[in-house]
Write a structure and sequence with these properties.
Elements lengths: L9 E5 L3 H8 L14 H14 L10 E6 L8 H12 L9 H25 L5 H12 L2
Antiparallel strand pairs: 1-2
Helix pairs in contact: 2-3, 2-4, 3-4, 4-5
């Protein structure tokens, strides 16, 4: 991980998914039960993991938007997870030396996974979106 630099890289999502990212992160400090993600990088990571788990790799098309800089990812937790998600898609170890390619793969995983997370938080079990998300995660880890 020390040789990989995510500095000055932007994270992209599909423009049509931006309202979902905004909905699930805005005002999180005030309404944690309704809006459980404080930062978009956290939501992006959950979306990428869901996309990978359910094999929902959805290529970003030209209609994309940058939402944050990759420097926002936690270098000890989130960056290694990004590498693992990239490796899941491309077993080629060569990809693991290219931060831009790793990020691109994860953007495509997140592009497929954001809709899974959104659906669970709107219609899953539980009274509030936070509890629905927790129930979903607990069910998936059984």
């Amino acid at each position: 991980m020390r040789n990989l630099s995510f500095t000055n890289l932007r994270v992209f999502i599909d423009k049509s998914a931006h309202p979902i990212y905004t909905e699930l992160t805005s005002r999180a400090v005030d309404k944690a039960e309704e809006v459980p993600f404080i930062k978009m990088p956290d939501l992006f990571m959950v979306a990428a993991c869901a996309g990978a788990k359910y094999e929902r790799y959805k290529k970003l098309e030209q209609n994309k938007r940058d939402i944050f800089v990759a420097d926002a990812f936690d270098s000890k937790i989130q960056l290694p997870l990004l590498v693992a998600l990239a490796h899941k898609k491309n077993k080629d170890l060569e990809i693991l030396s290219d931060a831009k390619e790793i990020l691109s793969v994860c953007e495509n995983w997140a592009n497929g996974g954001i809709y899974i997370i959104h659906e669970q938080m709107l219609g899953g079990k539980g009274l509030r979106p936070l509890y629905k998300l927790v129930d979903f995660i607990l069910e998936e880890t059984k």
